[in-house]
């Protein structure tokens, strides 16, 4: 149904319960596609990118074991019919990707997060979020 265009993310899944699971899955695939260049350039990997809906209202994302699993909130806490803005979820994803390298929210963390934001902004504005990411092979002589 949806194609994963990011070779640095192994699996993508939305919650089966709740309204609009296909819209949530579509958003996750879109986010995966958008960060493909950044992930490739910074050698970032995610095994499982998944939606979650925690009870803790201010919890927007979680990185488990440095990218083994990244969980993102896609629905508003008090209204699961209302999806979060994709740009804000993208920023949460960038935040969680920083946790692949840095655990605590210290100065280094915030500096790298800002660097990822700048890279992502440049990639999106240049249309580089889905460039060729495979291993090149020379053709011909």
Q: What does it look like?
A:
With 141 residues, this protein is α/β, with parallel strands linked by helices. The protein has a single domain (9-126), classed as Collagenase (Catalytic Domain). Helices cover 38% and strands 20% of the residues. It has four helices and six strands, in the order βααβββββαα. α3 (86-98) crosses α4. The longest helix is centred in the C-terminal third of the chain and has 20 residues, at 107-126. The termini are far apart. The mean pLDDT is 92.
In brief:
With 141 residues, the chain is α/β, with parallel strands linked by helices.
Oligomer category: single chain
CATH class division: Alpha Beta
Annotation field: number of helices: 4
Q: Alpha-carbon distance between the termini?
A: 39 Å
What fraction of the residues are assigned to beta strands by DSSP? Answer: 15-25%
Rg, nearest Å: 16 Å
Going by CATH, the architecture would be 3-Layer(aba) Sandwich
Report low-confidence residues grouped into runs of 5 or more: none
Number of domains: 1
What is the CATH T-level topology?
Answer: Collagenase (Catalytic Domain)
Total beta-strand segments: 6
Strand order of the largest sheet: 1-2-4-3
Major sheet attributes = 4 strands, mixed
The average pLDDT value, as a whole number, equals 92
Q: Which structural class is indicated by helix and strand composition?
A: alpha/beta
Shape: globular
| Residue share in helix | 25-40%
- The SSE order reads EHHEEEEEHH
């Amino acid at each position: 149904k949806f194609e994963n265009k990011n070779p640095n993310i192994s699996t993508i899944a939305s919650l089966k319960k709740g309204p609009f699971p296909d819209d949530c899955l579509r958003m996750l695939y879109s986010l995966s596609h958008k960060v493909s260049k950044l992930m490739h350039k910074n050698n970032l990997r995610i095994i499982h990118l998944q939606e979650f809906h925690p009870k803790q209202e201010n919890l927007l994302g979680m990185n488990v074991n440095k990218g083994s699993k990244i969980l993102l909130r896609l629905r508003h806490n008090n209204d699961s019919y209302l999806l979060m803005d994709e740009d804000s979820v993208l920023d949460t994803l960038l935040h969680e990707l920083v946790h692949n390298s840095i655990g605590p929210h210290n100065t280094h963390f915030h500096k790298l997060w800002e660097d990822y934001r700048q890279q992502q902004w440049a990639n999106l504005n240049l249309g580089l979020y889905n460039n060729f990411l495979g291993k090149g092979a020379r053709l011909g002589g």
